[in-house]
Write a structure and sequence with these properties.
alpha+beta; Serine Threonine Protein Phosphatase 5, Tetratricopeptide repeat; four-stranded antiparallel beta sheet
Length: 380
């Protein structure tokens, strides 16, 4: 079906995540610059500047960004992101200046705060936590923090989920020699500045020094994606997996390449491997798996994957799960349920072409349903 083929491209390589994490409403065609720690204006009394550090309970080395979230009176908001080493700093309770501020998380609130709008939250009813796929976080209560202070809240400790085998942290990073880490950090800076050629050379230097540097191989693949070198990116992602088979980020990279190539068998295999490592953190991987199984005519598996993805994504960060499920249900056929999921998707769609296609499919469901009813009436 052409509409689902268009969907396959809509979630293709353009969505390759900055890391194993993905943000609301999918990805971006160009990876955003890694945020810098904010520089607080210590003369301001409009809010409270909080700083701290994210660490992993087993001492694993962070090499990626971690979202820092607040929960105030039931409203969750992503305030900023850490740097690759886990350090963070942001303003809360005043006029937000944090570069990673993305407003209230729809998980608990539909209210969206503009990054430069006043935010007068009572810190006595606020908590701070980290968010990272495959981990839970300790929570820091801000009851003892007074407005206008510049407070270091200490460490936010991440704990691995016991039933998740895969991780967005590679164990090989801690084993890398200092020269490889130095080349990797240089490449990260060049990557942030979108100096793709320089970043590629530095990542290549890092993996030449330490061939089992899984994170460096993954980041090299991301740079190669930016340069439209899909063959090189595939090789880098495969090398990342060879270095650390439980590091999940390169599997995400390979799913995007398989989606772009319309290689449904590869997409099914790679997404199966990813979901076996971590079935609970990546609804976009369930979307890829559902699309692959749809085109392979495995409708039962396609429906199961789409429904599993929706269970993990109640606030519709990956709204196309609704569309895929509707397409699967049309083939069963289950027209009432298909129409329900299409209407949900219609309420989430933003692009005019998506809205038009959804309306077209709803009209087709109405036609098919009417025809089926007439056939059933005539057979009586």
């Amino acid at each position: 079906m052409k509409s689902l083929l268009a969907l396959a491209f809509a979630v293709s390589i353009a969505c390759l995540p900055v890391s194993a994490q993905t943000g609301p409403r999918g990805g971006r065609s160009t990876p955003p610059a890694r945020p810098q720690l904010s520089s607080p204006d210590l003369t301001s009394n409009t809010g409270t500047y909080l700083s701290g550090k994210v660490v992993v309970d087993d001492g694993s080395v962070l090499t990626d960004l971690v979202s820092i979230q607040s929960l105030c009176k039931g409203k969750k908001r992503t305030e900023t992101q850490s740097d690759p080493h886990g350090n963070f700093s942001f303003q809360i309770g005043g006029i937000s200046a944090a570069p990673g501020d993305v407003g209230f998380d729809p998980e608990t609130s539909s209210t969206s705060a503009h990054p430069n709008s006043p935010d007068h939250r009572d810190l006595r009813d606020c908590q701070i936590m980290a968010s990272f796929p495959g981990f839970t976080s300790d929570v820091v209560d801000l009851a003892g923090v007074s407005g206008g202070e510049n407070a270091n809240i200490g460490r936010l400790v991440l704990h691995r989920l016991s039933k998740v085998e895969g991780s967005t942290i590679s164990v090989t990073t801690a084993q890398a020699p200092a020269s490889a880490k130095k080349a990797f950090e240089k490449a990260q800076q060049q990557q942030k500045q979108e100096k793709w050629d320089d970043a590629q050379k530095s990542f290549e230097n890092a993996v030449s020094i330490y061939p089992k540097f899984a994170v460096a191989w993954f980041e090299l693949g991301r740079v190669q994606i930016q340069k439209s070198d899909l063959s090189g990116a595939r090789h880098s992602f495969q090398q990342s997996i060879a270095a650390d088979s439980k590091y999940v980020s390169p599997y995400l990279g390979l799913t995007q390449i398989a989606m772009r190539a319309q290689n449904w068998r590869e997409l099914a295999e790679v997404s199966d491997n990813l979901l076996a490592l971590n079935p609970d953190s990546f609804p976009e991987a369930w979307l890829s798996n559902s699309v692959a199984n749809y085109f392979l005519q495995n409708l039962t598996a396609a429906e199961k994957s789409a429904r599993r993805g929706l269970q993990l994504d109640p606030v519709h960060h990956v709204p196309k799960l609704e569309y895929v499920l509707a397409m699967v249900l049309m083939k069963k056929p289950d027209y009432p349920d298909a129409a329900q999921h299409l209407r949900t998707y219609l309420g989430l769609a933003i692009e005019p072409a998506e809205v038009a296609e959804c309306q077209k499919q709803l009209a087709e469901i109405a036609r098919l349903s009417a025809t089926a009813n007439l056939s059933a009436t005539g057979s009586k």
